[in-house]
Specification:
Shape: elongated
Structural class: mainly alpha
Order of helices and strands: HHHHHHHHHHHHHH
Largest sheet: none
Radius of gyration: 19 Å
Number of helices: 14
Amino acid sequence: MRALVNSTMLAFVRQAREARRDPGPFYVLPMLPALLMTVVFIALFERIATLERFGDTAYAEFLVPGVVALVALLGAGATSSSLAADLRGGFFQRLRLLRAPIGSQLSGRLLFEAVRLLPGTAVVLAVGLAFGATAHNGLAGILVVVALVTLLGVAFTGIFYAVAIRTHDPQTPFTLQPLGLPLSFLSTALVPLAVMPEWARTAAQFNPVTVVVDGSRQAMLGQLWSAELGWSVVVLAVWTVLGVLLAWAALSRDIARS
């Protein structure tokens, strides 16, 4: 167990050093789409809140707890690039010779994946609050939202790892980034179900991101500990486990072939 923890932290530190050398893709890029949508959507679509079906919530209040999820959905998976590069360069074969826990290379990177999303999430929330969003549950609600976004990033990254392991392609985070767009737009992140066309409403109801966004919105605007928050934690836990198992299975097959 101690060897696994030490190896995990070594992988984390190694990834953090890489991010320090090139901070743009790791820290800046994840927040840019969410920041842009926060500013532009509030400015252009604020009047959507006047629709009877929208409800009594101001658009800025509605938008920010949802749009912050885009930090994870459009910025996740950057660490899959180094994972693919290590596989291509023979780093994992050297680890096998040293009898180091191979799984720590996934856990260490996933831990850093969560940490690197924190600055972008904080900036998007701060800008959203400056543009009129509110946090009825104060700091506690904001911290819950931050936690949900980071967990969403970890859950989504499992897909990136599985593809990176299979292809050994360091460009994986760029080729898979568009996957976050349908997950974002076909959810309640930007507009409520009531104003969506029927086909989009059906897709959003089956979209796991909708569950996470609803939990985030409740944490900021409604009850801090709600059924929506509980379901969002369940969905994220299941999504994370499935993603890690998928990545681990791909890594095991790759190592067995080498």
